Amino acid sequence: ADGEDMSAALRSLPREQAVAVVLSVHFGLTAKEISAHQRIPLGTAKTRVRTGLTRLRTILEVGHG
What are the tens digits of pLDDT across the range 4-14? Predict the structure, then answer.
């Protein structure tokens, strides 16, 4: 996927998932760092990253299927 596809896919996610994914993938933060940065429980941070990445993958695969 190119940058435009990725941006569009990120915008389609709920904001909190998009933020978690960007912090994880782009900035290299761990779930623990994201939980501290966002002031959310560790489990919530892990779920947001995992769910966001899964949804991104689905969106991008459908777009190029």
Answer: 998 999 999 99
* Separation of alpha carbons 57 and 65, rounded Å: 12
Report pTM: 0.88
Burial state string for 28-45 with b = 16 or more CB within 10 A and e = fewer than 16: ebebeebbeebeeeeeeb
The beta strands (E) that lie in 1-65 are given as none
Cα 42–Cα 47–Cα 51 angle in degrees, nearest 5: 155
Q: Residue 40: helix, strand or coil by DSSP?
A: coil
- Taking the C-alpha atoms of residue 32 and residue 11, their distance in angstroms, rounded to an integer, is 24
- Asked whether 45 and 31 are in contact (CB, 8 A), the reply is yes
